[in-house]
Amino acid sequence: MTKWTMVQAIRDALHLALQSDPNVLILGEDVGRNGGVFRVTDGLWQAFGDERVIDTPLSEAGIIGASLGLSLNGFKPIVEIQFMSFIYPGFEQIVSHIARFRTRTQGVFSAPLVIRVPYGGGIHAPELHSDSTESLFVHIPGLKVVTPATPTDAKGLLLSAIRDPDPVLFLEPLKLYRSIKEEVTDGWYEIPIGKAKVVRRGEDVTLLAWGAMVPVAMETAKYWENKGVTCEVIDLRSLYPLDEAAILASAKRTGRVVIVHEAPRTAGLGAEVAALIQEEAFLYLEAPILRVTGYDVPVPMYALEASFRPDVKRVSRAIQRVISY
Amino acid sequence: MSSDYESDWVQYISAEGQLTTDGRKAWEQLSDQLKIQFYRWMTFVRLFDRKMIVLQRQGRMGTYAPLEGQEAAQVGSALALTDQDWVFPTYREHGVALTIGFPLTHVLLYWAGRVEGCKPVSNLRYLPPAVPIATQIPHAVGAAWAAKLKKEQTVAVAYFGDGATSEGDFHEGCNFAGVFQLPVILFCQNNGYAISVPFSRQSAAKTVAERALAYRFPGIRVDGNDVLAVYMVTSQAVKRAREGQGPTLIEAVTYRKGPHTTADDPSRYRPREEVKHWSRQFDPLTRYQLLLKNFQLLTDSEEEAWELECKRRIEQAIKEMESLTSPPPTHLFAHVFSDLPPALHKQRLQVKQKEGKEHD
């Protein structure tokens, strides 16, 4: 067991994947000699060489499109896109081809690549480096979308994504890259895609969060515990497919749900989750399902970032509302 | 169309059906069997194309993208490939599909709105047509890249039109191909129009081929209505790719005689005289038939017999296609994921219950 940050845990997963399967390739901008803009791939180019860890032209559609071609002809590409705000040139490749290749070829081919993307704000990054547009991707049939909130989950989920026979968008919360250190199990282990994690047991309110909002939800839960209200915090981890069973079980038990996400509110994943709960657990609810989200404005430059992202205060207000409804 | 389409192109058969000096050398290298194949496939593809328009008008097919005029570009290039080469077509490449051996029933199914028509067959590497423009170019580049990494001798071909050269994916694909020196052929059929917009509105460059210069690989302009020249130019590009000499951009200059699809009316955007000029002067099939007859490789009765045979095969395939039952509604879910996630499984069950069918 080693104490690692999420960056180190992801690097370890990539190292294991490169080691265990000669068809695994890493492609992206600056992933080679430089070890990636966040140093996630640090040392991999030196260890596995230029034909396995590949510095590509600055060309997101080219990287993602060529990776589809590589995957058709036997390789397992793991693509790194530098920031979620820069994935959009490759969006067409994802929505029109990668996500529907299995369907269009009637199962003869699939495009089982992994696209790793740092996302979200909270680190005072430059303008257009802090997008959290996961719902754009969750909406695409044929694509899995996952995001870890701990180093252990990051490694296990990434190894699952690499083994998955379908394409996976792997979102890495920037804010959590280096803010948590924990013991991470050595060697290959997988955390199944499609399973949420109860990170804190509680009886009164269910807090649903993912990525960098999980620590915010946890902190809020601690605050309320002192006041005699216990919150169950669930890290969704898998945004598509959703762990509907886990969400519904908790909602039915507590009857009060607050969903926290960094992405803008309208048509965010919170809307989908709220709809699911009211369809399946309406009679269990003691209060309306509330969402604490980013506002429906362009992600601000960092001077106003703290006002945009949900924090303990805002989540607390929502908890107050659902318990006093 | 710009008036200088003939500048610096490779032409082996003149519009009058005569071999040029270089054409004579090429002609001598080829077997009679291959020479007949050129004719047979171009005829087959043309008759197929015409039949499809009829079927569409009769309501037996959906909107269809005709290719008449582009038979030489498609048949000539496809015959230069093997069944181990990767082909990434657009929606107008039925000529390539049929020539390379993709089943006629699949092509028919595709235009009848049936996803089974997309399904690749096991003895070929012919992929489903790309519908968004130019997006298949990076795929071909990636498949070629894999071949290079695995030290395979296969090449990958991306087919696209002149409009595609304005898209970012064309540039990104060409750039990767050049940087990594990949065994890929970028085969552009410049048919003069992207739906209604002429090539002069796609690029200030006079040709597509010259754009290869910036990527540092050869760009070759060929008379796309000359099946012999297209075949030879593509064969050379294939040879270069197999020998590790990297990509080639081929611009086959041709003309789409009909509409973009059965849903548009080209008289709105093309002068009648221009269509007549191309159809009369440059028709790929007429030109080649003249040549074959000059060399006594084709007689009128052989021609008649082959056309009858083509029609018979086409009719038979249509019958076969129309007799294939459509999969049940639950087939919607059949290949979305390797294993259906629970929520999708639930949606599938809803469809199944609605249909009251127990099988799929």
What does this structure look like?
The complex is a heterodimer of chains A (325) and B (360). Chain A has a seven-stranded mixed beta sheet, with helices on both faces. Chain A has a five-stranded mixed beta sheet with strand order 9-11-10-13-14, with helices on both faces. Chain A is an alpha/beta fold. Chain A is built from twelve helices and 14 strands. Chain A folds into two domains: 183 residues, Rossmann fold (3-Layer(aba) Sandwich); 127 residues, Rossmann fold (3-Layer(aba) Sandwich). Chain B folds into two domains: 306 residues, Thiamin diphosphate (ThDP)-binding fold, Pyr/PP domains (Rossmann fold); 34 residues, no CATH class. Chain B is built from twelve helices and eight strands. The chains are: A alpha/beta (325), B alpha/beta (360). Chains A and B meet through α3, α4 and α5 of A and α6, α7 and α12 of B.
The rounded Rg of chain A comes to 19 Å
Strand order within the widest sheet of chain A? 3-2-4-5-7-6-12
Morphology call of chain B: globular
Low-confidence parts of chain B lasting 5 or more residues at pLDDT below 50?
A: none
Strand content of chain A: 15-25%
Fourth-tier CATH superfamily name of the largest domain in chain A: Thiamin diphosphate (ThDP)-binding fold, Pyr/PP domains
N- to C-terminal distance of chain A: 46 Å
CATH architect. name of the largest domain in chain A: 3-Layer(aba) Sandwich
Mean pLDDT across the residues of chain B is: 95
Q: Name the helicity range of chain A.
A: 25-40%
Question: What would you call the shape of chain A?
Answer: globular
Computed structural class of chain B: alpha/beta
**Helix fraction of chain B by DSSP (H/I, runs of at least 4):** 40-55%
Q: What separation lies between the terminal Cα atoms of chain B?
A: 51 Å
How many separate structural domains of chain A?
2
The CATH topology of the largest domain in chain B: Rossmann fold
Which two chains touch over the largest interface? A-B, 44 and 44 residues
| Major beta-sheet overview of chain A | 7 strands, mixed
Number of helices of chain A: 12
- Briefly, what CATH class of the largest domain in chain A? Alpha Beta
